[in-house]
Write a structure and sequence with these properties.
Layout (H helix, E strand, L loop, with lengths): L3 E7 L3 H13 L3 E5 L13 E3 L3 H10 L4 H8 E7 L9 E6 L1 H13 L4 E5 L2 E6 L21 E5 L4 E9 L8 E4 L2 E4 L11 H7 L5 E12 L9 E3 L23 E5 L2 H8 L23 H7 L7 E6 L6 E8 L4 H8 L10 E3 L2 E7 L17 E3 L9 H19 L13 H12 L23 H12 L4 H23 L1 E2 L1 H10 L9 E2 H5 L6 H6 L6 H13 L3 H12 L1 H19 L16 H10 L4 H5 L6 H10 L3
Parallel strand pairs: 1-2, 1-9, 2-6, 9-19
Antiparallel strand pairs: 3-5, 4-5, 7-8, 8-9, 10-11, 10-18, 12-16, 12-17, 12-18, 13-14, 14-15, 15-16, 20-21
Bound molecules: flavin-adenine dinucleotide.
Length: 646
């Protein structure tokens, strides 16, 4: 049994799994220690991946060679591209997943990844062998650099060593579950919490906070009258997450269902308010405003007579349904009574009631952009412990922490994504620059370069980076290059193909588009909103020589629907794309002006007091980073620019 590794990852949730697989694939010897190996990548809450902005994150993880997209595709039971009626920047893939299969596929991935070792146990202590001043005094038991700078002790008394540690403990640190006035220690329903570990980090000097989140009841499908509910099907022509040809879109989909609460349901729920840990002061942690419990919704929207609920299947081999929109920590009898007043749920049985959970997190301003902690070099934090919520946000951080932990051990340059390169860049920059005051989830509105950061082009943005790091293998790289060349060739073709006025006369009129008065190139016509390349490609080619040429080109080069859509988006949004690129380029210059580590901001008397305090606390590494810190004004940035000779 090997006791010494390059990297130890604590926790096999969404963050830990991506971190461990990435670092191991890159060549580090990795040990993943987790409390229960039968619960790897468990979906603690809804059985779905993606959604608005989160879907873009999954595409980015996939584009860089991460695993979440592939596993999602292989466990999808319903797929929808959200926001198709809005602009392309808003299109967001979302998949309902078979929860059990999702976890089983992750377990299989972990077990088949070379260099990756697994150990089921509870980590109870972390020994740090290198102190923050850089001298080589080692904690008890850690005697030489060769043996590793960290010691990870488990409840079974095993002590592992490593040169880097990634902590991804999710909602388990000091986890406390609430259902009405009942409280039970736990990291998730039915699982014990991680006790005492938080204090080890406090002793090391870390700041700690408390947050809360909640989950709804799970229903027994055999007791639901689906005939009384409206049905929501997946896309007729489903797509998928992974850019890799290893996965295919789902072929057999399961429906979701929609139910509605009523005034009577609300009345019943209100009878439990006095026992609600949210309202009687029992819960002190801050919860996510945008994902409120049903009791919160009744208070905030007191005048609403009804709230919509979505019944989402948890898998193919189970009758369990997740009741999206009904998150609650009211007493279980109150939840039960209220549910039985909902049309279609009159005879419902619960598999489990909704609950809230409070847990410890570490304010993420204590991290560098690599997710390495500032206090302890070689120690990384990723996932929910950084104050985020969501599987996708956790997985993205895990991937970045795993990559950075590996490359730091090789002495290579940190791998950081900019805000104009990826939602993952926005996520991490927001966390380390602004911190969090409630569980952080990604929204498209958090990104200033939305039109650059689309789900369709995540591979163009990030696969070359994944290749450079070493996570994108030859097969996937070859496939990417072929796709890129097909997209480029279609773009040039559309740019050079002439359309005569008579070619599209009827089509343009039928689409309320002004007829052409002279010959034009096809990309001119496609810049009109009402004209679609996909549509034109689907018209009968015999109609005109122009349509024949288009159809022949697409068939000859094997161009896919997704590739046609991508070309179309780039043509339609050309102006916006160029503008965002220009703004981003201007701001890069600020990123290039570095601030030396340990710089004394208090020595610059021309900075405002607030800026001096914030800069000293958050210690930005570049002027670009400083410019995004709330409370640091453009005038303060000018002071820094002048000081650093720019
Ligand atoms: C009740 C509840 C409701 C939620 N609601 C939502 C929601 O509505 N929307 C949403 O987007 N997200 C929600 N989430 C959050 C979502 O589940 C998490 O964001 C996501 O799972 C975080 O991933 P993670 O990898 O950081 O941690 P987790 O998935 O929590 O995984 C942590 C892992 O670490 C292991 N671990 C912890 N401590 C130790 C230790 N000391 N030793 C060994 N192993 C350890 C655990 O066993 C677990 O495997 C909810 C979570 C819970 C619990």
């Amino acid at each position: 049994m090997q006791l010494t590794y390059d990297i130890i990852v604590i926790g096999a949730g969404h963050a830990g799994c991506e971190a461990a697989v990435a670092a191991a694939r890159l060549g580090s010897q990795v040990l993943l220690v987790t409390m229960d190996l039968s619960k790897v990548a468990a979906m603690s809450c809804n059985p779905a991946v993606g959604g608005v902005a989160k879907g873009q994150i999954v595409r980015e993880i996939d584009a860089m060679g991460g695993q979440m997209g592939i596993i999602t595709d292989r466990s999808t039971i319903q797929f929808r591209m959200l926001n198709r009626s809005k602009g392309a920047a808003m299109w967001s893939p979302r998949a309902q997943c078979d929860k059990t299969q999702f976890s089983a596929l992750w377990r299989h991935t972990l077990e088949t990844t070379p260099n990756l070792f697994l150990w089921q146990d509870n980590v109870v202590d972390l020994l740090v062998g290198r102190n923050t001043d850089g001298d080589s005094s080692y904690a008890a038991g850690l005697t030489s650099e060769k043996e590793g700078s960290f010691g990870v002790k488990t409840a079974l008394g095993v002590e592992f060593r490593a040169r880097a540690v990634i902590l991804t403990a999710g909602t388990f640190l000091g986890g406390l579950i609430h259902v009405g006035r009942s409280q039970v220690e736990g990291g998730r329903a039915g699982e014990s919490s991680s006790k005492g570990l938080t204090n080890k980090f406090v002793d090391l000097g870390f700041e700690v906070g408390r947050m809360k989140t909640g989950t709804p009841a799970r229903l027994d499908g055999r007791t639901i009258n689906f005939d009384k509910l409206s049905r929501q099907d997946g896309d007729a022509d489903p797509s998928k997450f992974s850019f890799s040809p290893q996965t295919q879109p789902v072929t057999e989909q399961l429906p979701c269902f929609i139910a509605n609460t009523s005034l009577a349901v609300h009345e019943t729920l209100r009878t439990g308010f006095a026992d609600s840990p949210l309202f009687n002061g029992t819960i002190r942690g801050v919860g996510p405003r945008y994902c409120p419990s049903i009791e919160d919704k009744l208070r905030t929207f007191a005048d609403k007579d009804s709230h919509q609920l979505f019944l989402e299947p948890e898998g193919i081999t189970t009758t369990e349904y997740y009741l999206n929109g009904f998150s609650s920590s009211l007493p279980w009898r109150v939840q039960m009574a209220a549910l039985s007043q909902i049309e279609g749920l009159e005879n419902v049985h619960l598999f489990r009631p909704g609950y809230a959970i409070e847990y410890d997190y570490f304010p993420p301003t204590q991290l560098l952009h690599t997710l390495e902690t500032r206090l302890v070099p070689g120690l990384y934090f990723a996932g929910q412990i950084n104050g985020t919520t969501g599987y996708e946000e956790a997985a993205a951080q895990g991937l970045m922490a795993g990559i950075n932990a590996h490359i730091a051990l090789q002495g290579d340059k940190p791998f950081v994504l900019r805000r104009d390169e990826a939602y993952i860049g926005v996520l991490i920059d927001d966390l380390v620059t602004k911190g969090v005051d409630e569980p952080y989830r990604m929204f498209t509105s958090r990104a200033e370069y939305r039109i650059l950061l689309r789900q369709d082009n995540a591979d163009l943005r990030l696969t070359p980076k994944g290749r450079e790091i070493g996570l994108v293998d030859d097969k996937r790289w070859g496939f990417f290059e072929q796709k890129k060349s097909r997209v480029e060739s279609l773009k040039s073709f559309v740019h050079s193909l002439s359309v005569a006025p008579e070619d599209l006369q009827d089509y343009l009129i039928s689409h309320n588009s002004t007829p052409l008065t002279q010959g034009r190139k096809l990309d001119f016509v496609l810049s009109r909103n009402e004209i679609s390349l996909l549509d034109l490609a689907g018209l009968s080619p015999e109609d005109t020589p122009f349509l024949t040429a288009l159809a022949e080109f697409i068939a000859k080069h094997g161009i896919t629907t997704e590739e046609i859509e991508q070309v179309e988006i780039e043509i339609k949004y050309r102006g916006y794309i160029e503008r965002e690129k220009l703004i981003a380029e201007k701001l890069h210059r600020l990123e290039e002006v570095t601030i030396p580590d340990g710089f004394d901001f208090t020595s610059l008397s021309s900075l405002t007091t607030e800026a001096r305090q914030k800069l000293s606390r958050l210690r930005p590494t570049t002027i670009g980073h400083a410019s995004r810190i709330p409370g640091v004004s453009p005038a303060d940035i000018n002071v820094l620019l002048v000081y650093f000779g720019r």
